[in-house]
What does this fold into?
Amino acid sequence: MTRTKHSAKRHRDNTGASSSRANPNRNQQPIVPYQPQFRDNAQKEKFEELMQRRAGKILFPHLPTLEKAGIQDEVMQLLSRDWWQHLFFGINEPTYKEITCEVLSSFKAPREITNSFYPVIKFRAFGEDHVLSANDISSHLGFERLDDVARWDGSLLDFPKEVNQQQFWESITINGGRYNSQTSPSTVLHPLKYRVIHALLSSTVSGRAEKGGKVSSTDFFCLYCMIHGRRPIFGALFAGLFARQASYRVKELFAGPYITRMMKAMGYGDRLEGMTVVEHIYPMETLPKEIPAGRRAARHADDDDGGAEGHQQAEQDDAHEMMHGAPVLPPPQGHVFPNSWEGMHQHIEDMYGRLYEHQQQFFTQMSNDVTAGFSSLDLRMTSLEQRWDRQFPDDQQPPPPPF
It folds into this structure.
């Protein structure tokens, strides 16, 4: 009797197991798409606009590629600090598009963050409002908190006052002209390792890879920090990234993996299910095999005889191959058009850079003049009021004029 009951029970268990295997989702609830709770219609409209944007291609160093190019040691030396290793190798998250766009559509931060522990960064996530400091964002992303800000002057993303930025720019470029965050191209960075680093920064913390290879102020600042071993406050860097990503001028989103990491650190990891998932982190690969080794060696041998100009062209060709995976063919013999075009292009960019600086100086001077004029007017009005009060005290005011 006991054996019969046991056999019947085992039969029922096996039947249930078979039924479960046949329909594994029978007892599961359907996943409901995430619907953000917007603060107002403006955020809703911004969210819908952000959802239409594509995810940008985020790059991380590909060691075999760097080794083939002969610059693995040089690049990895610049990335040897723990915080750069964490940025490029430690944050490998997908983008959950709905929460990414919800955060960006509500994100607000000062243009210049001057203190790492003041809670001045605001955004909305999962229908809740959050106010964080730059150090909070650093911590959520896995970077060390830097509460000691005594060594920072002004904005957390400013160069130290004792650093001559133009001299630093000239030390990492060839024929780079005067640095301008709007016009200075990455093609003048030298040697090649700096161009590789710039490409990595542009697709991560700078988020400007779609801008055609300009060295932004964020790129410039991070290059300085890498070369001189300065630890930036990453919370301030990413606050700048999120603010730029929310701009209507941006077509590609690079902020997703970092927002995902923040949401998990803030305890929202179990609420990401049901969102649109985008994987867009890739190794920075190239196709060096398309250029025969003999031709590469011959080209560099010719460059050694060609002085700095030839060496610069070789480095730029190598960088193009590194970034785009396609060889740059040498110009045909007897033609100097590429070099002339390079010079003319650089001259035009320098001219626009100077024009932009003059324009900024003009607006600054005009603003100062207007401010000084109003200050002078205020002083005169105050002086007149004081003279009036001395001449006509409250108890000796002249009678009103007759009608």
In short: The beta strands are 54-55, 58-60, 95-96, 121-125, 128-132, 252-253, 277-278, 281-283. The chain has 15 helices and eight strands. The longest helix spans residues 337-391.
